[in-house]
Amino acid sequence: MNEQPTRVLFLCTQNSARSQMAEGLLRAFGGDAFASFSAGTVATRVRPEAIAVMVELGIDISGQVSKTLEWFGDEVFDELITVCDQANEACPFFPGARHRRHWSVADPALVMGSEGARLAAFRQARDQLRRHIETELLGR
């Protein structure tokens, strides 16, 4: 019997960095056991810094697009994971989820300064998301 993959929706405010990286990480490391998606309260664009730091891991998210929650309509997900910084942002809400989790991840797009400083912030967010995915979803 074919078991359906666990459907996971990652949410943040703009669907430009954190949720995009989380979608790509789970798609790369979760295999056929997971179907990974992301959305935000507004659609913008996938940040080039997010694309760059994912390429460092051999993961290409350049084909992913920024989407709003409306993109998914009445779809139901097994896991809904908000990845916004709860202390500083209003996290989006989506009713169609069986289980909910929150991972507080600071928005790397808010970091100003040199390219090196911005990329370091994106790497930190990427690595934090990877740890959450490996321990909480993949059981590693």
Automatic annotation (TrEMBL):
Keywords, ordered alphabetically: Arsenical resistance, Hydrolase, Oxidoreductase
Record-level GO BP terms: response to arsenic-containing substance
Phosphotyrosine protein phosphatase I domain location: 6-140
EC number: 1.20.4.-, 3.1.3.48
Pfam families: LMWPc (PF01451)
InterPro entries, sorted: Ptyr_pPase, Ptyr_pPase_sf
Protein name: Protein arsC
Taxonomic source organism: Nitrolancea hollandica Lb
